[in-house]
Amino acid sequence: MKKLLFAASFIFLLTGCGSSLQTLAQNILYPYQQVNKQYAVPKTPPAGFGEATFDFTGKNGHPVHIVAWTYQQPKGASRTVVYCHGNGENLQALSVSNFLAVMQQFGANFIVIDYPSYGLSTGTPNQYNLVTAATKAIEWAKSTYPNNQIIVWGRSLGTGVATLATAQDQKFVSKLALTSAWTSFMAVAESVTSLASDIPQSWINANDYDSATVAPTIHIPVMMQHGTIDKTIPIQFGLTLKADFTASPSVTFNEIPGKGHNDIFTALAVWQQLDQFINGN
Q1: Integer CA distances (angstroms), 29 to 25, 32, 91, 121, 126, in order
Q2: Residue 169 and residue 138 in contact, taking contact as beta carbons nearer than 8 Å
Q3: Which end of the chain is more exposed for a tag (fewer CB within 10 A), N or C?
Q4: Which CATH class is domain 8-279?
Q5: pLDDT in tens, 153-188
Q6: At 184, is the secondary structure helix, strand, or coil?
Q7: Are 178 and 237 in contact (CB under 8 A)?
Q8: 179-208 CB burial, b ≥16 within 10 A, e <16
Q9: How far does Cα 145 stand from its chain's mean position?
Q10: Is 113 in contact with 39 (CB distance < 8 Å)?
């Protein structure tokens, strides 16, 4: 899948650019303009998919409109997956890469949201708005499939979204899956450059995705995956977060040998682990 997070090559631009650190951090964490330019999300979902939309008042009182694509297994399913994608993706990117087609092979229903400003969704991207969008999707899944197990799955930036949303809506969620997870935005940023400490605290407070703080409150099974040579979010962040899930009855951490951040889904083992976790007891 596409790019992400706090790549060092972007950070080095901070010393030679007239824009503020806050603007640069915002653009690095949420590169929706580049994503939408490369992948134009159609007004109509692909054949076989439905659409769900959510409207709410976002941070600072601004309206947010979220567009999600949904998939229902033709013969029914006992599980529904809520997927939170990475920051370098939108619904169309997931479609043309065949990611959504592979997800169908799990035999589960699923819903995938586009974050604010991604694809056809509107509103400002920030932690509150992304997490609220995810909680709306979780609640939609439980309302639409009241007898299903709900599994929340996040990748990269989406691991922060998924973890915080699960902590809020834990009464609806049966399992949490995290691919290439981090402890918090600032922990990753500070590991890349000392300039991260100069980002305004107000922006950090609104965008830190501090999974480490909420992890101890999560009391459902957790499955994690991480590439051993991930340079964007090094595996140490995933291992540190694993230790924070102290209330979970089971936390499985799968190291994916020889895989980095953007090629982890090329490993068959990743899909096999997800299938086993989603469909296991």
Answers
A1: 6, 9, 18, 17, 9
A2: yes
A3: C
A4: alpha beta
A5: 999 999 999 999 999 999 999 999 999 999 999 999
A6: coil
A7: no
A8: bbbbbbbbbbbeebbebbeebeeebbebbb
A9: 22
A10: no
E strand or H helix that includes residue 64:
strand 63-71
Both tokens of residue 149? Answer: 């197990």
Distance, in Å, from the CA atom of 105 to the CA atom of 101, rounded to the nearest integer, reads 7
Locate tokens 């992890």: which residue? 215
Tokens of 35: 């994503």
Q: Which amino acid is residue 247, in one-letter code?
A: A
Per-residue b/e over 243-274, b at no fewer than 16 CB within 10 Å? ebbeebeebebbebeebbbbebbebeebeebb
Per-residue model confidence as pLDDT tens digits over 73-113: 999 999 999 999 999 999 999 999 999 999 999 999 999 99
